[in-house]
Amino acid sequence: MLRIALFVAMLLRLSLVSGDDMSLVGTWSSKSNSVFTGPDFYDPVDELLIEPALPGLSYSFTEDGHFEEATYQITPNPQNHSCPVAALIYQHGTYEELKNGTLILTPFEVDGRQLLSEPCSDNGVSTYSRYHQIEKFRSYALSVDSYHGRYKLQLYESDGSAMQPLYLAYRPPLMLPTQTLNPTSASEATAESVSNKVKRSLENRFRTNAVKNPGFDYDFWWWLSVGMMGVGSALYFFC
After folding, report:
1. Helix or strand or coil: residue 42?
2. Do you know which PANTHER family this protein is assigned to (predicted)?
3. Is residue 103 helix, strand or coil?
């Protein structure tokens, strides 16, 4: 009966995470829990990339096929440990999931930005430039991390190698407006309409409807398991 109780508890847990919660939609962040998409990473009004406290990676996905990416990467210099290369990268655009599970992220070409710092060769002046890189992931996997008790997104690069895992941080996703932010004469959006949306987004950055994902309620599942074991023991005793 004890095995039956544990099996029922496991089924109840799986039923909790097998519905709409197991979705790509949301803001996902790497283990450092320091890098997130949205206005605290990139200010498109002043075109500023804001350095997070720690390196990391974040992706956001919407239900209607838009994505946003925030990357803060530090690459050590093996010949001179005091000369690490740091890069901040922002992109957003649209994504497509193919029938074979492949994800293709196509950024808006005019909006991507990169801030590159090479302290031992740039004389203390970082290089700020446009950035545009289509990204292709061979596949992805959604699961519940048994150690952290959080929803996990595992992306696999085009060669099949696994990237660092990402964990659900916000749902709905924490993002800037999903249209061209810095339009040129060839862009579809008008500069005035986009500027107003961006300013509202920045003003409302602390009033977002995105909800921080708390992970699983361990106390609930602990007491549920205890209760199920009690029920199983009672059934065994009386039967």
Report:
1. strand
2. PROTEIN ROT1
3. strand
Residue of 186, 199, 172 whose CA lies nearest to 64: 172
**Residue type, position 68, single letter:** E
Distances in whole angstroms, Cα of residue 165 to Cα of each of 29, 144, 162, 180: 8, 11, 8, 29
d(CA 163, CA 50): 24
Distances (CA, A) of 167 to 26, 27, 36, 107, 219: 10, 8, 11, 22, 21
pTM of the entire structure?
0.73
- pLDDT (tens, 9 = 90+) of the chain, 239 residues, equals 444 443 434 433 433 344 457 899 999 999 999 999 999 999 999 999 999 999 999 999 999 999 999 999 999 888 787 888 999 999 999 999 999 999 999 999 999 999 999 888 877 788 999 999 999 999 999 999 988 789 999 999 999 999 999 999 999 999 999 999 987 655 444 445 555 555 555 555 444 444 455 554 545 555 566 566 665 665 555 65
* Alpha helices (H) in the chain, listed in sequence order: 2-17, 191-203, 218-238
Residue 115 CB coordination number (10 Å): 20
Q: What are phi and psi of 178, to 5 degrees?
A: -90, 35
